[in-house]
Amino acid sequence: MARHPEYQYLDIVEHLLEKGDRRLDRTGVGTFSMFGVMMRFDLSDGTFPVYTTKRVFWKTAVKEMLWFLTGQTNIQSLLRDNVRIWTDWPLDKYRKATGEQISQEAFEARILADDDFAQAWGDLGPVYGKQWRRWRDADGKEHDQVAAVIETLKTNPSSRRMVFHAWNVAELDQMALHPCHMTYQFHVSGLGGGQEKPKLSLLVGQRSNDIGLGNPFNICQQAALLAMVAQQVDMTPGELIWAGGDVHLYSNHVEMARELVRREPRPFPKLRLLRKPDSIDGYRIEDFEVTGYDPHPAIAAPVAV
Ligand SMILES: Nc1nc(=O)c2c([nH]1)NC[C@@H]1CN(c3ccc(C(=O)N[C@@H](CCC(=O)O)C(=O)O)cc3)CN21
Ligand SMILES: O=c1ccn([C@H]2C[C@H](O)[C@@H](COP(=O)(O)O)O2)c(=O)[nH]1
Q: What are the Cα distances from residue 90, in Å, to 93, 101, 125, 199, 300?
């Protein structure tokens, strides 16, 4: 039997544990790192690559992807959806600016209850959603890169120019964090005719990746994006190909990593979209049906801010 595709991930984890380059990083936590990594996941049979060697909260990750697609950049809308993974950055900024040692819970409650406060303190700047849907050019015109890619997929699917990306150099200094997953490039195969629908693949270029927390989220949310776009253009999902630049294990994730490589992967779940919305803007978390997910237990780990 073929080796379980999750071993691509576990091999990276193991390599970082054994041979990772020890370095200090921006957060001060310290990492074990390697540079230049690729993984490929075949999604054509409905496979949804949610890792199984720990429970991955795939709904949270997919909700984050849906939030990117809305073009929003304020954590208020994430919190309304009970997604708390971005709170640390505005919280850190607020504490440093005001000296107030507010708890995460109290800060989140205030963002939710007080729109003015959310405006002032909950915005992450022009991060992913803004760049994907409303990239501003030098003349002030806004570009919807996602809609443009979908339009090209419908009208000229053999194009080699179906890309959207978030690394807007002019606006980097206004972002809470620089984009980590940066380039999304689509490719269609099987256009030569025949019975089968064409296959849509996605290559994601990610300059920096937290292998313990970020990667499991990124892989399943990128697979979810591919499934949505494929459905919109009436194609079958092909491969998700993921290319990482600085791929690192934070030093406070070493115990989790050792446990992950001790565990044996179980079959990946399957994803089905229960509804076809009129456009890429119409998806909701309820549209994602995931079956056969039977992971090992969750492992809690701190996020480096
Ligand atoms: N250091 C770092 N790692 C990241 O992965 C990361 C950042 N920073 N900054 C921006 C976003 C935020 N991301 C995050 C942040 C936290 C979790 C996290 O804590 N995940 C938990 C469960 C969280 C939950 O369900 O609420 C996990 O066990 O996966 C995941 C991704 C991904 N990105
Ligand atoms: O989707 C994401 C977002 C962020 N990360 C990680 C990668 C790094 O550990 C930090 C970002 O720090 P930089 O100093 O800007 O590289 O966040 C991720 O893995 N996935």
A: 5, 13, 10, 40, 22
CA of 241 to the centre of ligand 1 (A): 21
pLDDT 10s digits, 49-90: 999 999 999 999 999 999 999 999 999 999 999 999 999 999
- Do the domain assignments include residue 129? no
What does the chain come to in residues?
305
Q: Report pTM.
A: 0.97
Q: Is the CB of 304 under 6 A from ligand 1?
A: yes
Residues 144 and 239 in one domain: yes
Per-residue pLDDT reduced to its tens digit, 127-143: 999 999 999 999 999 99
Instruction: Tell me, using a 6 A CB cutoff, whether residue 88 lines ligand 2.
Output: no
Pair (144, 16) in one structural domain? yes
Q: Compute the average pLDDT of residues 149-173.
A: 98
Write down the ipTM of this complex. Answer: 0.98
Distance from C-alpha of 145 to C-alpha of 166, rounded to nearest angstrom: 10
Is the pLDDT assigned to residue 1 strictly greater than 80?
Answer: no
d(CA 44, CA 50): 15
Measured in Å, residue 134 CA sits from the centre of ligand 1 at: 25
Q: 24 with 164, same domain? A: yes
Instruction: Indicate if 90 and 218 belong to the same structural domain.
Output: no
Annotation: binding site: 26, 160-161, 207-210, 218, 248-250, 304
Residues 158, 18, single domain; the answer is yes
Q: Are residues 158 and 269 in the same domain?
A: yes
Nearest to 75 by CA among 66, 65, 86: 86
213 within ligand 1 shell (Cβ under 6 A): yes
180 is annotated as an active-site residue = yes
